[in-house]
Design brief:
The complex is a heterodimer of chains A (378) and B (242). Chain A is built from 12 helices and 10 strands. Chain A is elongated, with a radius of gyration of 29 Å. Chain A has 2 domains: 2-43 and 252-377, no CATH class; 73-230, no CATH class. Chain A has 378 residues and is of the alpha+beta class. In chain B, the strands form 2 sheets. Chain B has a 6-stranded mixed β-sheet with strand order 6-7-8-3-9-10. Chain B has a 4-stranded antiparallel β-sheet with strand order 2-1-4-5, with helices on one face. In chain B, helix 6 packs parallel to helix 7. The longest helix of chain B has 15 residues, at 179-193. Chain B is globular. Chain B starts with 6 loop residues before the first strand and ends with a helix. The chains are: A alpha+beta (378), B alpha/beta (242). Chain A binds chain B through residues 1, 3-4, 7-8, 10-12, 285-286, 288-297, 299, 372-374, 376-378, and chain B through 50, 53-54, 57, 59-60, 80, 83-88, 90, 92, 94-96, 98, 100-103, 107, 111-112, 114-116, 120, 159, 171. Bound molecules: adenosine-5'-diphosphate and magnesium ion. The site of adenosine-5'-diphosphate has 10 residues of chain B, from strand 2 and helix 1.
Chain lengths: 378, 242
Amino acid sequence: MLFVALRMLTFDTAKYLGLIFTVAFSTFLISQQASVFASLMTRTTSQIRDVSDASVWVAHPEHRYIDEIKPLSENALTEVRGVEGVKWAVRLYRGLSRAKAADGNFRTCITMGVDDTTLVGLPRKMVLGDPQALRQPDAVFLDRFGYSFFFPGQDFRLGAELELNDRRAVVAGIVDSSAPFVTFPVIYTRYSLALTYAGQERNTLSLILAEPESGITPKQLAERIHARTGLTAMDAEAFGWQTIWFYVRNTGIPVNFGVIIAVGIVVGTVVASQTLYLFTLDNLRQYAALKAIGVRSATLAGMVLVQSSVVGSIGFGFGAAMCVSFFFFTRNMPHLRGFITHSEILVGTAALMALIVVGASLLSVRRVVALEPATVFR
Amino acid sequence: MTVEHAIRVEGVEKEFGSGSSAAIALRGATLTVPFGGITMLVGPSGCGKTTLLSIIAGLLRPTRGAVRLLGRDLLAMSDRAQVDFRRRSMGFIFQQYNLLPSLSAAENASVGLLAAGVPRRAAVGRAAALLSDLGLGQKLDSLPRTLSGGQQQRVAVARALAHDPSVVLCDEPTAALDGASGRAVMEMMAAIAVRPDRAVLIVTHDSRIFDFAHQIVQMEDGLITAVEQRANPATPTPAQAA
Ligand SMILES: Nc1ncnc2c1ncn2[C@@H]1O[C@H](COP(=O)(O)OP(=O)(O)O)[C@@H](O)[C@H]1O
Ligand SMILES: [Mg+2]
């Protein structure tokens, strides 16, 4: 009876495509919205994730999250270095500065000052240039989207000049850094140079990056640093979550987005299950005839389930493809940079769609099973 | 054990609903349908013919009474056993044909065989042979919507007969057809469906086809009121059947 089930499903092409479209649309709606949300939230942690050389972050106890930091005293660095189990600890400056190109084009940039000696804190991936070039006088690294902003239409080239808070800066490298939440360009420079760019603030030790000796986990080290120094210390993941939670608690973005996603999930679920359910109801008379002829209820239920599963799989496939393509084609748009389809979300959407398919099938199968076959005589 | 009658219905009563809104459809119907011929159940609209047919088919449970089919107590069977019994031993023809719109004529006629687990090729092949006997050899691949009412009903006849049932039950098989098509369908039935080891029960109020009956059972207001045996029912010549 399998081919009968499939024939029933595909017979009316318009209806069939409509079913698939509905599931695809629901899949796209749910996975795209959820991915945008997840991407937006991970974007708040870009500068944390881009630091791959250190696993522990130390901040002033009164800091709120990475974007709202109270400077540490120079003493703090000495204290942290003194904690047993610290392999090394280095300074990190993080601040905002105004950068201006020769043509007057200006923008606020996130400025990261990395340790002069070790250059710990640089992103791993260079688009152009060598990390060691950051040691040259007035050298800064610019992220590639910042470069495209300040030097629109120009090929990547080293040696271009910018003014950072009215001081000369030479682009000595182009890095591939993750998009920050606010889509500012990101500039990397040496810690000492960052201080001169920053100018006014006296005490400018934003954060300390530390690495545990082998045998100690970042989490253990963070706890130890906190216990010995009273400073806040977290492993990179916890520091990232702290930032995400700050945005969740203090901006309307997550709540509003959450509502939109919830609406998307509800709409997608209702539309998809309704359509699948109604499709079976449309065929109720055919099922009644089959039941009268002697087809077992279990077989009929199987037919309904096969139909829903086919629609569910194909529809999910199209929807997921639409979602992935969306983020693929928008990957180079500065404001949508860093937005990706999270595989967890696709898996979740697949599970939800499977649930919808099975749920709608069960609901409609109840109608098929409870169906009075005598109705075919009416 | 030899089974004397194909169908034996005794004192069957059927009430729909209960209390003051109850509708009594059958008031103690008793009926015997023999093998080897066509029995027609006739009577005015609303007298309970369809209800009785549904009970005989195992599609509806009576309020009271006994039903024996091929010597077996239908009411003692579980729902599941009834379904299996229907699939093996009964064929159905409905007023509204009830073909699956997405299947070709041959595929539609094979549905009973498919349900019984016959592989698709074999099932469609057997159904196609039967359709050719019914004069639809040219229409095997046609969809129901491209067939006339008479042709659709002949597909339904093939579907009802393809698995060689011992009992064939029909509800107003000619009511939706014009006189000529109705007669053509009945001629097919008389030629192909009637066999010594099979009983054909047709519910109808179409007096134009009464002459195909071996036995006419009169029904009125939920009761069997008369049974008439016919000595010489219309038997089609091979030319008529083709
Ligand atoms: N499911 C039902 N619920 C309530 N009343 C019914 C139902 N089916 C049939 N009836 C009633 O039972 C009586 C007999 O109906 P039916 O068997 O269809 O008659 P016929 O086939 O002879 O026209 C009618 O009065 C009809 O209204
Ligand atoms: Mg009727």
